[in-house]
Write a structure and sequence with these properties.
about 290 residues, alpha/beta, Rossmann fold, seven-stranded mixed beta sheet, five-stranded mixed beta sheet, 8 helices, 12 strands
C-alpha cells in the first residue's frame, strides 16, 4: 500500500488503480477517458470545485502564529503552494521552498508565484534534493493532511528525522496538520459511504465530484477514491480525473512518541476543525514541534 497515492509512483493507466465501489464501475465501463492524479486537490478542476464550497485553509492561521519576517520556510508536500503563497503575502519571508511529487501541482505553484524568494520544486520529500539538504530553515511545515499519506511508523520516523535535520536552531519549528485525538474512532461511519457534490466550473458548465470510502478501523487507514467529470471527448466518452489514496489517521498522541525518538518534542497543539466534506466539523490538530 505504500506505493499508492501521492508519494508513490503514478500508475500507468486506470486499470492499475483500485477504486472503491461504485467508482470502480466508471473505470471498467469502457465509456470513460480518464486521467490519473496523484492527489485530487492538485488539479485545477478541483480548484474550481473549491470555489463553490470551502477552500481548505484550516492550517493557515496556525502557521501564521509561528512564522516571522525573514524566516526561511520549507513546505513539504506543498501541493499548489497555497500555504506558502499565503505566508509570502503576510510576511517578508526569506528564501523559502515548496516541494511536491506532483508535476501538475508544481506547475500551478510556479504559475502563481510572484515572489522571487519563493521557489516551487518537484521532488520526493523522502529523498530531498541536495539543494535543500544543504540549507537550514526556521520553519518546516507539512500542510493540510500531508503526513496522513504516510502509512507506516518507520516512514514517518524517517520523514521527521529528515525534517529535524533541516532546522536552523533551537528556535526553529516543525508544523504538522493532522486529525485530533478521538477523531479517527469516529470515522467508521464513512466505511462504504459514497458522497456526490455538484459544482459549477469556470466555463459555466455544471459538474459532479464523487468520493467513495473504505475504512480500516483496526489500522486507522482510510481508502479514498475520487472522480470528477470534466466533460466529454469527441467520441462522446466521459472525460475526467480519478485519484486513489490511502490515508493513515495520525493524531497527536500517536505522533508525539515517534517525534521524541527523532529529537523533537511538542511545543503546542492548536485545535481546528475539518471545514468541508464527509468529515466536516470533526476535530483536527496542528502540532508544533521543537527540537529537544
Amino acid at each position: 500500500m505504500e506505493g499508492i497515492g501521492r508519494f508513490g509512483p503514478k500508475p500507468g493507466n486506470t486499470r492499475a488503480i483500485e477504486l472503491q465501489p461504485p467508482l470502480d464501475r466508471i473505470v471498467s465501463s469502457g465509456v470513460a477517458n480518464l486521467r490519473i492524479s496523484h492527489y485530487y486537490f492538485d488539479e485545477p478542476l478541483f480548484d474550481e470545485y473549491e470555489l463553490t464550497t470551502v477552500r481548505a485553509t484550516w492550517d493557515f492561521s496556525a502557521e501564521e502564529s509561528i512564522v516571522r519576517d525573514g524566516h526561511n520556510v520549507l513546505d513539504l508536500g506543498c501541493g499548489d503552494g497555497r500555504l506558502l503563497l499565503h505566508l509570502a503575502d503576510k510576511f517578508a519571508l526569506g528564501k523559502s521552498f515548496g516541494i511536491d511529487i506532483s508535476s501538475v501541482a508544481i506547475d500551478r505553484f510556479k504559475s502563481a508565484t510572484r515572489h522571487e524568494h519563493i521557489h516551487a520544486m518537484r521532488g520526493d520529500i523522502f529523498d530531498l534534493p541536495e539543494a535543500i539538504t544543504q540549507l537550514r530553515f526556521d520553519v518546516v511545515t507539512f500542510g493540510d493532511a500531508t503526513v496522513n499519506f504516510v502509512l507506516s511508523d518507520d516512514r514517518l520516523k524517517s520523514l521527521l528525522q529528515s525534517s529535524r535535520a533541516r532546522l536552523r536552531d533551537a528556535d526553529s519549528r516543525i508544523m504538522i496538520a493532522i486529525f485530533g485525538d478521538g477523531t479517527p474512532e469516529r470515522l467508521s461511519f464513512m466505511d462504504k459511504k459514497c458522497t456526490v457534490i455538484p459544482f459549477r466550473r469556470n466555463n459555466g458548465e455544471a459538474s459532479l465530484i464523487w468520493w467513495a470510502y473504505k475504512y480500516d478501523a483496526e489500522k486507522l487507514i482510510m481508502h479514498r477514491s475520487v472522480f470528477a467529470q470534466s466533460g466529454w471527448d469527441g467520441d462522446g466518452n466521459i472525460e475526467g480525473v480519478v485519484s486513489d489514496l490511502r490515508d493513515r489517521m495520525w493524531t497527536p498522541s500517536e505522533i508525539a512518541p515517534i517525534a521524541e525518538i527523532c529529537g523533537l518534542t511538542v511545543d503546542r497543539i492548536i485545535e481546528s476543525k475539518v471545514q468541508d466534506g464527509a468529515a466536516a466539523g470533526m476535530s483536527t490538530a496542528i502540532m508544533v514541534l521543537k527540537p529537544i
